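Dear support,

We are seeing what looks like truncated structure output for some complexes. This example has two components. We would appreciate it if you could run it in full and send us the complete token output so we can diff it against ours.
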Amino acid sequence: MSRLRISGARLLDPASGRDELGSLDVEDGRIVSVGRDAGGGAPDEVLEARGLWLAPGLVDLHTHLREPGQEYKEDIESGTRAAAAGGYTLVCCMANTDPVNDSPAVTEYIQRRARESGNVRVRVIAAATQGLRGEIMSEMASLATAGAIAFSDDGAVIMDAAVMRRVLEYARGIGRPVIAHCEDLNLRGSGVVHEGAHATCCGLPSSPGEAETVMVARDLELARLTGAHLHVAHVSAARSVELIREAKAAGVRVTAEVTPHHLLLTDEEIRGYDTNKKMAPPLRSARDREALRHGLADGTLDCIATDHAPHAHYEKDVEFTAAPFGVVGLETALSVGLELVREDLLSPLSLMDRMSTRPARAFGVGGGTLEPGAPADFVLIDPERGFKVDAAGLASRSKNSAFLGKELRGRAIRTWVGGRVAFALDEELVR
Amino acid sequence: MRHLLGIEHMSRDEIERVLETSEAMLEISQREIKRVPTLRGRTVINVFLESSTRTRVSFEIAAKRLSADAINVTRAGSSLSKAETLADMARNLAAMSADVLVVRDSVAGVPHMLAERVRVPVVNAGDGCHEHPTQALLDAFTLRQSLGSLEGRVVAIVGDISHSRVARSDIYCFTKLGAEVRVAAPPTMMPAGIEALGVKPCFSMKEALSGADVVVMLRIQQERVAGSLFPSVREYASTFGLNARTLALAKPDAIVLHPGPINRGVEIASDVADAEPSRILDQVTNGVAVRMAVLYLLTGGAA
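Here is the complete output from our reference environment:
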């Protein structure tokens, strides 16, 4: 058994509140010691990591891996390679595959493929209703037994409140959260961008933030009624943050996520008709963005989740209204988070909390800690390392990033999963 | 000017240049032999993927009066009906050495998208609810014939502002030329944040037309919006229609424009459409001259 020591790094472990210079020892795929005073004995290998941050591996609660059925966009191998490159050690993949993941057979298939070809850990989100049709609930108990950790129809919004109520009730009984993409599809109509002056100038069909907030309000009420754990996906509107804050204060079991693109960009981006700025929910106003940032900082929004949604270049290279919604995000999320640290919105420790510890706990998927005994899932981060986002540099099979051409600062430079190196940016660790 | 994608990003000088060039082009249209050899050997492709008669014919005549070869592509007869993407079709047309692509599409941003993908000058002939720049230029040209200058003039634009590309282009064009612009519609047809374009939103004809020098009436797409954005055509006509009574709210010598095709008895009454204050047919005449000017300026303009 060989022992690896990473020494001299800034250790950031939200689970224990640790933020100190020190070292971390790994043996047999597990963390064996960590801290300022750790590091006795003679390790077999020492990595000098001065100036770098060492944090538990990032956990993404909202990833589209596209396998099975849409491997031309992404597959489990390429998607988890992108995840490792972004510092993630665990991703939760959405159910809108082809066939839809609404059966134990598909859930088991995804997990088998993840064992065979995955570069990071994969947890499976199964459909809440059969065929994502919003009518008859899926076999949630069987799916949970097969390994499903949460249920969601994601963008195929369950518009019927009675169906949503039953889904929440049933999921509560088997102890799994329900993830809601909150968008009233009638109020959204043909809208593809946020309603406001930018949409008006562009002449693109738009929908207001209220398309989201009316659904957030509905689902919070249903969560209150049923006692179920509701997880609100990709919150985008200021008022949604307020509603979630009020519900949390009232004891409703709700967690929520926000995407990197909603934290960094606004609807001004649509002015160039770039379909890599088209996603659901849409980029909203600067005021909304401020509320999201503060909601993340005060913990109303529990975590950053990518909604990594790969689409082939030719699918996005069409008229704006015809292009599919969604952008990739696994490889840029951490850099966006570090931007918020530089703006003093989050401390380094709280950023790691929002990207690792809290999402891991929200869904009970493991990870999110550097404590001895935990699996050796962690990431070494260079907070100053700058890079330009370009298609060639992305590991994901699809290149539909909202940040193409942008200069970002700070990124994962090495990622370990179970003590194995899943990603390494450089051979040497020196800057 | 490399492309004409919209008025929003044009300077006042660029607008003036088009309008001045249009004067000379109008003179050509008034000759007995309405053709000059200026663009001989050039190829103008009119890619009209949304139905249009007036604008397509106007561009075609404009090209022909300058001796360019004009070719029309429509959606039904194009490779788009064989699932070719628009970007690929444009690349193919450009590869046939087109000198100008004139593009009309029902989706906002399409001319912009094509301009990024081909090396050929692109003219926006109307894209979704975004812009219709040649309409605004011909409207400005028509108004200057009557008013001399737009400086300080009050223009009221009435109709479905939300879905009107003419409204957007007119707003940009008229405000850049110094006019004060008001827009009028029921709130269901008033887009969010319209004030950002430097106009005053009004919710009644009285508010919009009082003291106006110009009234621009927009076509109501009855089949699309009646019943969803307003209750009935009858109610629309009685609240936002232009007739002798509502026109009297404007200045006595106010001018009436309409981009056409008009819905008689809906947004405009026949007695107004056909009477002295109306410049609707002048707009059509001037449209050819303005489009000649645009084609000429985009293909080099050195004569």
